[in-house]
Specification:
The structure holds two protein chains of two kinds.
Chain A (H helix, E strand, L loop, with lengths): L14 E8 L3 E8 L6 H11 L10 E5 L2 E5 L2 E4 L7 E10 L9 H18 L5 H4 L2 H15 L1 E5 L5 E5 L15 E4 L13 H6 L9 H8 L3 H13 L3 E4 L7 E4 L3 H6 L1 H11 L9 H9 L7 H8 L8 H11 L2 E4 L1 E5 L5 H5 L14 H8 L3 H10 L3 E5 L1
Antiparallel strand pairs in A: 1-2, 1-6, 3-4, 4-6, 5-6, 7-8, 9-10, 11-12, 13-14
Helix pairs in contact in A: 6-7
Chain B lengths: L2 E2 L11 H4 L3 E10 L5 E6 L12 H7 L22 H9 L9 H9 L1 H21 L2 H8 L10 E5 L2 E5 L2 E2 L19 E11 L4 H25 L1 H17 L9 H8 L1 H15 L2 E6 L3 E6 L1 H8 L11 H9 L6 E4 L3 H6 L5 H10 L6 H7 L4 H13 L3 E4 L7 E4 L10 H9 L5 H6 L5 E2 H4 L6 H16 L3 E10 L6 H5 L5 H23 L2 H9 L3 H7 E3 L4 E3 L1 H9 L5 H9 L6 H10 L4 E5 H8 L3 H10 L4 E6 L2 H4 L5 E2 L1
Antiparallel strand pairs in B: 1-19, 2-3, 2-7, 4-5, 5-7, 6-7, 8-9, 10-11, 12-13, 12-14, 14-17, 14-18, 15-16
Helix pairs in contact in B: 4-5, 8-9, 9-10, 15-16, 25-26
The chains are: A alpha+beta, B alpha+beta.
Main location (chain B): other
Pfam family, one (chain B): HTH_NPRL3
InterPro entries (chain B): HTH_NPRL3, Npr3
């Protein structure tokens, strides 16, 4: 999830104000709720961004200066009924300068469109009487959005304002056939009826072991649809992807392993997660020993033979899941490569699996693509004189 | 949530090629009392033909951000803004045809770096167009800010482009009598602003890096203006060109900015700033031939040194400060370019850098480097941080026989990676990927060395490893040691299935003691010395039993010795169960090193600080293996410079 490192916290809505171009006074701060957040001076300093030149109307403008972060969507309407033939206004959200505000941008924009429609339908803004109800509306919007991130407000008989603050997250990476989705939240907290039909059909097959291609065939849903709804669920942070569990997998520890020793909470969570049976919680020592023994060249099978985790009440699959999810271990993927091929195209023209030996395809990918077992592929690799394997 | 980047190609985020091109444009704006606000210079002022994608029409239809298009739909944007919850949802569930990035598209990026760069350029155009098409008068009103906003950062985001600048006021000559001689002497410039246009999806830290650049440029310009009225002079010549261009003429109109570029040195400098920051992440120039300007966008320079890697998390000031905070004498400086090139690019403290660059070698740690360069360690550290900050060098652990390396998880392994060819050219036809595959299972230099090889081949091997390290294709695994004694309270071992509550309590207790111990150990430097002091010969003899073979130590004494380290009773007992604890020498060495066994110090650290040999250390770890766990991962300091984990 690039660019998401240390996401800043979402800002509250400090204030909502309505400003307009008054044909006598010029840019004017008409209403604000609560009062006295934006002083007259501050407004005047920023008014070029709030009541901007015509070219910038109809555009989301966020200005961050002077310890004030203001999101607005300036609107300009033409018509002979307006003084100077133009009505210019902007309904802005004021936020904390150092915090995240992207989540409000669609809301501000949508709100501006509601106001445009209201003006067109019933002269809501040009009529002084209806305009004076704005502070009440703004206060209600602010209160409702702060309380439950959504807002429903009836303005006229035909117009009801619906707003929702969606969390903005980075776009999930594309999903591959060999990825395994796993729930991040407990499965019980997911209400199938909240989801679309495809997702409802896919959810029962997500167990942390089945990979995408397998889910698709078992759920009888097209692979690309499965991928799309998995990607959607990743966006909502309900599931994440992990590599396929195989006993031939090799994992290594990352610098995050020290968190496991330092944080009691993480330790407790770990022991709860890796237990073979929920009634018996394993000791930390053998769990940690297993993680520490994950070094290059040591497969899960080797670990099982050496330490017999089930004797200590540890489920090795859950152990690997927990480690991968928390980033304390990482999988070493195998990439078979033909090194003596003169050019890339000559690899693409190879027969059978060898055409994938270009250093871009991992064992998992080739195996799912060609429906081959790991061992079969291994044999192919060993047979070819100029094939090498990079683990990374 | 943490995510780990060890997945296959999919972790190559579709956004990542774009990340290298945060910068979209640069503007210089002045606010004036008489002439009003005006845009003095902007770059780029046209969309260069080279960067325009093949079909202009097609691009137009794709462009949701162009100024002419109103009320854009975000459905196809790659920007962070999504219309609302429902749009997002449909956006991801409509099926493959509507998905913005099909896997095959990502695939192209990776297979072919050339294709990826053109794709990035094409997608950059969408934003670039927005910036270039912004009318001059809009720019001038936006950025010629009111006086009360001067002297602080200003950030304006318009749709998907973010502008950041640092406006400054210029001191007027006679502020007390502004009306005295308005035309002749007093300056027309009240304030000015150097603004960068960035993609809105650039992270907060990247924006701050650009803000810092803007601030530095503004400070240098202000100094030149105060000293020599440089900005006024340049502004005047730029405005003259603008006036000429706006006067009606029959000639085909050329952009006034291309003329300004020819006439004004400041404009040329701004162009250089834009280009260098965009393509190299750094810029060095002398403003008005006198003020030094050294600017750097750490995120870009560091990304450029890793340009063939898959999406490496951004390395910004925070990561670099973490790295510099834990810089130790055992780290080594690895120059990423040849010393002369680096030296030529340095303008300050040249004598110090000259000595350091001359003496630096991948086998020398910073301590040795300081000795060889005859400089203080502090100076070497400072210079090292500077070199690393500017991505002219990186940090490694000095090359030794026993270093274990693995392939970096994000290292490129595709056969058509340009590095393959580069490696072949550098090391007479050696194959990079074949060599790289040797590190698959974690290999030490020792293991790679063929005893039959002659010295020339040995040197080649050494050079090849240095080459891999320079390109960060391999990373070193260090061994960390954890002390984890067996918690064998008799009451617990007897119970076949301990009940849950009891067990929880035990876990807490264990953790508590572990923390306590670590805490006490951090202040225990003196307690260790006391320990060794009062081990004088007389008292020793009371406890030692003179065995036939070696000195051994009795149980009580051993417990006593361990307890003084702040260990809990059960921990002491557990350690004393280890056969080696009977041996006095082993136990004292163990006690001496005990506080390093917290997983924070790797073997090399312990060797460096306690002056023990690797063989000694390995022997003691092996002897006490019942209570010690070892694990391998990267050095945390070096890891900051080539990370693969996302927070």
């Amino acid at each position: 999830m690039p660019n998401s490192q240390k996401e800043r916290n979402e800002s509250p809505i400090c204030c909502i104000f309505f400003c307009e171009f008054d044909h006598v006074y010029g840019p004017k701060l008409t209403f604000q709720v609560p009062e006295d957040i934006v002083s007259e001076d501050k407004f005047n300093a920023l008014n070029v961004y709030l009541i901007p030149k015509k070219e910038l109307e109809g555009r989301l403008i966020t200005v961050n200066s002077n310890n004030l972060k203001v999101i607005g969507f300036p609107v300009g309407l033409d018509g002979p009924q307006f003084p100077r033939n133009r009505l210019i206004f902007n309904l802005c959200f004021v936020c904390v300068s150092a915090m995240r505000t992207v989540q409000y941008e669609p809301v501000v924009k949508k709100l501006a469109h509601y106001l445009i429609n209201l003006e067109k339908e019933c002269q809501f803004i040009s009529n002084k009487e209806t305009k004076s109800t704005l502070p009440k509306i703004m206060a209600a919007i602010r209160d409702q959005l702060t309380a439950n991130r959504s807002c429903e407000l009836t303005i006229t008989e035909s117009t009801t304002i619906y707003l929702k603050v969606a969390r903005v997250r980075p776009k999930p990476d594309p999903v591959e056939d060999h990825d395994v989705p796993i729930f991040l939240t407990s499965e019980g907290s997911i209400v199938p009826s909240e989801w679309d039909l495809t997702t409802q059909q896919v959810i029962p097959f997500i167990d942390g072991y089945r990979h995408v291609a397998k889910i698709a065939s078992e759920a009888d849903v097209e692979v690309s649809l499965v991928k799309a709804c998995i990607q959607n669920m990743i966006y909502y942070e309900i599931i994440t992807l992990i590599p396929i569990f195989q006993y031939s997998n090799v994992y290594v520890t990352t610098p995050k392993i020290s968190n496991l020793v330092e944080s009691t909470e993480l330790q407790e969570e770990c022991l709860r997660c890796v237990a073979k049976a929920p009634s018996f919680k394993p000791n930390f020592r053998p769990v940690f020993q297993l993680y520490c023994s994950m070094t290059p060249g040591v497969t899960i099978k080797d670990l099982c033979v050496r330490f017999n985790p089930s004797l200590n009440g540890i489920d090795e699959k859950k152990l690997v899941h927990f480690g991968s999810l928390k980033g304390i271990i990482r999988r070493l993927n195998k990439y078979p490569i033909l090194v003596d091929a003169p050019h890339l195209t000559s690899i693409a023209h190879q027969r059978g699996v060898y055409r994938f030996f270009d250093g871009n395809h991992s064992y998992d990918k080739i195996c799912t693509e060609m429906s081959k077992s790991h061992a079969e592929l291994e044999e192919k690799v060993e047979k070819h004189p100029s094939a090498v394997v990079c683990w990374k | 949530m943490s995510s780990i980047c060890n997945r296959s190609k999919t972790d190559f985020s579709p956004n990542s090629p774009d990340r290298d091109g945060f910068l979209l444009g640069i503007f210089l704006v002045k606010a004036g009392s008489i002439g009003g606000d005006s845009l003095l210079f902007r770059y780029p002022y046209t969309i260069d033909d080279d960067t325009v994608a093949p079909s202009k029409q097609e691009k137009k239809s794709k462009n949701p951000f162009a100024l002419v298009v109103e009320n854009v739909n975000n459905g196809h944007s790659s920007g962070p803004v999504e219309d609302n919850c429902r749009t997002v949802f449909t956006h991801y569930t409509l099926g493959p045809s509507s998905r913005p990035n099909k896997p095959s598209a990502t695939y192209c990026f990776e297979l072919d770096p050339v294709a990826s760069s053109t794709a990035a350029a094409a997608s950059a155009d969408i934003y670039l167009e927005t910036v270039v098409k912004l009318p001059d008068r809009v720019v001038s009103t936006l950025f010629a800010v009111k006086n009360e906003l001067c002297g602080a950062k200003i950030e304006i985001k318009i749709n998907d482009v973010r502008f950041v600048g640092h406006p400054l006021l210029i001191a007027q000559d006679q502020p007390q009598s502004p009306t005295s001689q308005p035309t002749s002497k007093s300056k027309d410039i009240v304030a000015f602003n150097v603004v960068f246009a960035l993609r809105a999806n650039a992270s907060h830290e990247v924006v701050n890096s650009f803000h810092k650049c803007s601030q530095l440029i503004a400070a240098a310009l202000k100094k030149e203006e105060d000293d020599k009225a440089y900005l006024s002079k340049e502004a005047k010549s730029m405005l003259t060109v603008h006036d000429e261009a706006s006067s009606p003429s029959d000639e085909p109109r050329t952009s006034p900015y291309s003329l300004i570029l020819q006439r004004s040195q400041l404009a040329a400098d701004l162009k250089k700033i834009f280009e260098d920051l965009k393509f190299y992440g750094t810029v060095q120039l002398k403003l008005n031939k006198s003020s030094d300007l050294n600017l750097c966008i750490p995120q870009t320079v560091h990304r450029l040194t890793l340009k063939y890697h898959r999406s490496v998390p951004l390395i910004g000031p925070r990561e670099l400060n973490n790295c510099f905070g834990s810089l130790r004498a055992y780290h080594a400086l690895l120059l990423l370019r040849d010393p002369q090139t680096i030296f030529d690019s340095i303008s300050e403290n040249r004598p110090i850098f000259k000595r350091i660059l001359h003496a630096a070698a991948p086998t020398k740690n910073l301590g040795q480097l300081a000795r060889d360069a005859q400089l203080s360690f502090e100076n070497v550290c400072k210079a090292t941080c500077q070199l690393v900050y500017w991505a002219k060098a990186t940090l490694i652990y000095p090359l030794t026989e026993s270093n274990v390396y693995v392939i970096h998880p994000l290292a490129p392994t595709q056969v058509d990676c340009p590095l393959v060819e580069k490696f072949r050219a550098t090391f007479n036809n050696s194959n990079l990927l074949r060599f790289l595959s040797e590190f698959s299972l974690g290999t030490s230099i020792d293991q790679l060395r063929n005893p039959l090889h002659n010295s020339e081949q040995q040197i080649q091997l050494f050079n090849q490893i240095v080459w891999l390290l320079k390109h960060r294709l391999i990373s070193q695994l260090h061994t960390y040691v954890y002390l984890l004694p067996v918690n064998s309270s008799p009451c617990l071992t007897k119970k076949s299935i301990p009940d849950r509550t009891n067990d929880t309590a035990k876990g807490d207790e264990h953790q508590q003691t572990f923390n306590e111990r670590r805490f006490s150990n951090f202040n225990s430097g003196d307690s260790l010395s006391i320990l060794s002091n009062d081990d004088d010969v007389d008292s020793e003899n009371d406890y030692l039993v003179n065995d036939a073979s070696s000195l051994s130590i009795n149980y009580e004494r051993a417990i006593h010795l361990l307890r003084e380290l702040g260990l809990r009773d059960y921990e002491c007992e557990s350690i004393c169960q280890v056969p080696a604890s009977k041996n006095y020498e082993d136990l004292t060495l163990f006690a001496k090193l005990c506080h390093y066994f917290d997983g924070k110090h790797h073997l090399e650290y312990i060797m460096h600080h306690e002056n023990v040999k690797r063989s000694q250390l390995l022997a003691i770890i092996d002897k006490f293996r019942d209570v010690l766990f070892t694990c391998q991962h990267e050095d945390k300091t070096i890891f900051q410079l080539c990370p693969y984990l996302y927070e």
